[in-house]
Design brief:
The chain is mainly β. It is built from two helices and 26 strands. It is 4% helix and 43% strand. The strands form seven sheets. It has an eight-stranded antiparallel β-sheet, with no helix packed on it. The chain has a six-stranded antiparallel β-sheet with strand order 14-24-23-20-16-17, with no helix packed on it.
């Protein structure tokens, strides 16, 4: 089964594309009809690429927004021990086998770039989408694993704010487009970072025209809520620590004018991840950043939950 699959429990509706990375395309609060996930401002190619996209430019035509997985790489493509890892990893665009039963869906992928079988179980619990994922390696390997939850749609169609508990905050040192409001590499405590042009920036209130990338860690409670100021819709992303020790926060609010973005994207990435940097396996290894080490016969399991309130 590779055609899109729809799950519906009367409270939320979820659409999944097994044939394109198992990407979760939509999560909609059915009583209100309001959507929580973002879509890119171009028509994505929903057919899986023939080879490994070795650049962001090759990956983007297949990117839909929504919620793909990043595995076993996150960020720039690279070659590790003779193996080519594409931008954002094989899993983000791979064809996953799918079994649909009632309000649940099971996705499975046997990876070519690492000796890993991964199973993702999606189920609906009231207003929550619960994604339980298990990775089982047949030989030792080091990976980046991230959940690329990209919020948008009706959730970002009005002024909004981001709420979470105390966390350490670090701006990406290398990400500095024209719309970046924060000083690259700056550190602080949520939600404040030194501004690129002086002063302090409050990341809990992203503004139109921002493009930013920052990393949060040291959570007391691993969850983040994004809510419209008018109270019409809120989305909470919650995850388990251990596998995901940090969160990537990506802000793209009509800032990037180059094609294919063309100043039209309104996306907010709230992305639990194993590795506190978004520039790929090779750079993470060179920098001594934490990688997730998988061992044969020792399955690694984690749960990520997206809950809507309206």
């Amino acid at each position: 089964m590779t055609a899109p699959v729809h799950l519906d429990n009367g409270v939320i509706g979820v659409t999944v594309a097994p044939g394109l990375g198992g990407t979760i395309l939509d999560v909609v609060h059915l009583p209100s009809g309001l959507s929580a996930l973002g879509r890119v401002p171009w028509v994505p190619d929903l057919t899986p690429p023939a080879g490994v996209p070795m650049s962001e430019a090759d990956w983007l035509p297949h990117y839909t927004g929504g919620w793909p997985i990043l595995f076993p790489n996150g960020g720039e493509a690279c070659v590790i021990d003779g193996v080519a890892h594409g931008f954002h990893g094989e899993g983000s665009l791979a064809v996953w086998s799918a079994v649909h039963a009632g309000e649940g869906l099971t996705l499975t992928c046997d990876f070519r770039t690492v000796p890993v079988r991964m199973t993702r179980q999606l189920r609906l619990e009231g207003a929550s989408l619960v994604v339980t994922t298990e990775a089982l390696a047949s030989a030792p390997c080091a990976v980046i694993w991230g959940e690329h939850v990209t919020l948008g749609g009706d959730l970002l169609a009005a002024p909004f704010h981001i709420a979470c508990g105390p966390a350490v905050l670090r701006a990406d040192p290398d990400y500095d487009p024209a719309g970046n409001p924060v000083f690259p590499g700056a550190t602080g405590v949520w939600p404040h970072l030194p501004g690129r042009h002086g002063g302090t920036v409050d990341l809990s209130r992203p503004a139109e025209g921002w493009a930013a990338l920052a990393y949060l860690s040291g959570f007391d409670r691993p969850e983040v809520t994004v809510a419209r100021d008018d109270g019409r819709l809120a989305a909470t992303v919650a995850w388990e620590g251990g596998v995901f020790d940090c969160l990537w926060l990506w802000v793209e609010l009509a800032a990037t004018t180059a094609p294919p973005w063309s100043g039209q994207a309104r996306l907010l990435g709230v992305e639990p991840c194993s590795t506190p940097a978004g520039h790929g396996l090779a750079q993470a290894r060179a920098n001594g950043d934490r990688l997730l080490h998988l061992l044969p016969g020792r399955p690694v399991r984690t749960v990520t939950r997206l809950t809507l309130a309206a």
